[in-house]
Amino acid sequence: MISKEEVQHIAKLARLELTDAEVTNMQKDLSAILDYFTLLKKVKVPNRAAKKVFLPLEKVTRKDKAVDGNSSKAGDLINATPSKKEEYIKVKTIL
User: Fold this and answer.
1) 4-42 maps to CATH 1.10.20.60
2) Domains of the chain by residue range
3) With b meaning 16 or more CB within 10 Å and e meaning fewer, what string describes 21-36?
4) How many angstroms separate the CA atoms of 74 and 95, rounded?
5) pLDDT in tens, 45-88
6) 23: which of 40, 53, 83, 91 lies 20 to 30 Å off by Cα?
């Protein structure tokens, strides 16, 4: 079982102020949690490394293509705006 001093130290690290009753309750709870981890350590897990399936990664990237600065969609958007300057959309100053 975890000692009261250890519970108080953990509470201090967590910046918790615990009463004596709360320390006793936390002592029981933390001990139960640690006992459960001890139980989990005893469980034998089959070796799953051999069963991993990896899908082949092919063609996961695309080729870089230079796009004309005045592509049809961008040009249509710029032409549809009420205010423009060269290839840019003019907007009101925010700041």
Assistant:
1) yes
2) 4-42
3) eeeeebbeeeeeeeee
4) 26
5) 777 665 666 777 777 787 888 766 556 777 787 788 888 887 78
6) 40
